[in-house]
């Protein structure tokens, strides 16, 4: 689903701006050519290493193509027929209209330098469903394979998974899935996609552990090859080498990827933040980011989630201190903490508080139980013996000796917290005096549900605490700038965010010295071809997402959704009538049945009139000797819907049914 951008005037203005900046760069380029008398080429194409001491990008300087003219290898030695980048007037295709940042180097000749294709198959139009294919020659690797949760207009849809038609068409070339971390928006679609594209999965240890839980549920454990990769290690997948680099995030074992390709090094941050004092393990490996930056990074794909927030994201440890304070202030209450099941470090800090204040812990919610079990087995969480008790045992302990950790901090109706709050939980009810901590912030779209639960909890006499009880797992502006400063990429390709987030990151990248026309705000499905000195959009592949509804994958499309929308807003009218097989005369009906349209008892007049409208219509058909049922049905539909629209301004779905005797 693509966002619609700006008005026509805005688009024209932006187009003008872009063209103007191209003209400027062209002038600059010609200027330098005149001065040096020849054109030179640099960068890390053709297997040459980038010059470390000669930064490709000069921070703060809004100059385009600096690295192209400021190198040593003479232009003459290049293959015949190769021209330098010629920033001609760029024709903006309709799909790119109104974008601030577009590809400048369309005209660079094909096959003149090694180039890699980057194809985002999701994750760019909204938060979720992250999946990006990287293609070089005969090899394709796929980074992440996540789900998105349905939007309000996707009625009845449970999940949205990526459309991998392009991968299926090239299945012989797909070498594997490389996964950055164990969140649903990065791994959730694996069980669905692996059924069609069975290639190995590579990830760090906890991430593989979480993926294995999923594979088990889908019966795919035996048929899926998987490999645990350590931080600092590299795997080779065809022409690609992929190194896993330690980062911090709201789940342990998150990794950034350095993807080494013959066209240059591509850095993918995954979801990250900079936490100098993480709860478990070490801070993000900034040194490695810097080393790779010195070697020369072709492109940086960086997390945009928090790019609208200035400053730094706080350390996870600050939440631990806050929780400790709350435990100390509520010595007599039973404490219930709701948080994200996947945030192992958060759970660790809650358990640490419980141990310190001599409370037993009850874990509620299936995903929470699973995560704690997996994290415990793999050594990512430290729980002293006897701390966790079964919920059956709760009555053996007084309230002030208990802590409940539950899922449902996003207000999900079926999750434990919601069931506890509304009295639908079999074993646990809230009571006055309980202290409920929401250790999370609502993801946009969930605010109403969370508020509903908070109201319910307050009405039942509990204390609800939600301030400063959460820190984000994503980098704010200063952290993003730090990554740009360390990696100094030639191209910035903001990922993981809505359009507005990615545009903001492109602006940040530009502030950090990446020329404007090298900050590419892509759309899902666009095939970006990238070389040391060129970038162009080289076609589109389908990337709309596939709806999962119950057990059905992909059988709910736009038409079904439109029907559901119509039904939910306007209801349904069924017109049933019976025809005689030989004479085609109406022998019974028409009968009119409605659901979700009007309350029939109060609208008897309307229903009677509707019946007359249908009878008139049938009579007209008879008169004109119409015997085609499709035609008769269409006529009934038309006359009835215009009658209803005239009278009560509604457009219910109308289903004429003809039976034959
Ligand atoms: Zn994440
Ligand atoms: Zn994510």
Helical residue percent band: 25-40%
Q: What would you call the shape? A: globular
Q: How much β-strand is present in the residues?
A: 15-25%
Number of helices: 17
Number of domains: 4
Question: Could you state the oligomeric state of the chains shown?
Answer: single chain
What small molecules are bound in this structure?
zinc ion
Give the beta-strand count: 27
Largest sheet: 8 strands, mixed
Low-confidence segments: 1-15, 25-106
CATH architecture of the largest domain: 4-Layer Sandwich
Instruction: Tell me, rounded to a whole number, the average pLDDT.
Output: 81
Radius of gyration: 30 Å
* CATH C-level class of the largest domain: Alpha Beta
Q: Would you give the CATH topology of the largest domain? A: Metallo-beta-lactamase, Chain A
Structural class determined from secondary elements:
alpha/beta
Q: Let me know the CATH homologous superfamily of the largest domain.
A: Ribonuclease Z/Hydroxyacylglutathione hydrolase-like
Q: What's the end-to-end separation, in Å?
A: 47 Å
Side by side, the strands of the main sheet go: 9-8-7-5-4-3-21-22
Name a few traits of the molecule.
single chain; 661 residues; alpha/beta; Metallo-beta-lactamase, Chain A; Rossmann fold; 4 domains; 6-stranded mixed β-sheet; globular; disordered N terminus; binds zinc ion
How would you portray this structure in words?
By secondary structure, this protein is an alpha/beta fold. The chain has four domains: 5-101, no CATH class; 115-311 and 473-548, Ribonuclease Z/Hydroxyacylglutathione hydrolase-like (Metallo-beta-lactamase, Chain A); 317-465, Metallo-hydrolase/oxidoreductase (Rossmann fold); 557-660, Ubiquitin-like (UB roll), CATH 3.10.20. Helix content is 31%, strand content 20%. The strands form six sheets. Strands 9-8-7-5-4-3-21-22 form an eight-stranded mixed β-sheet. The protein is globular, with a radius of gyration of 30 Å. Residues 1-15 and 25-106 have low confidence and may be disordered. The protein binds zinc ion (2 copies).
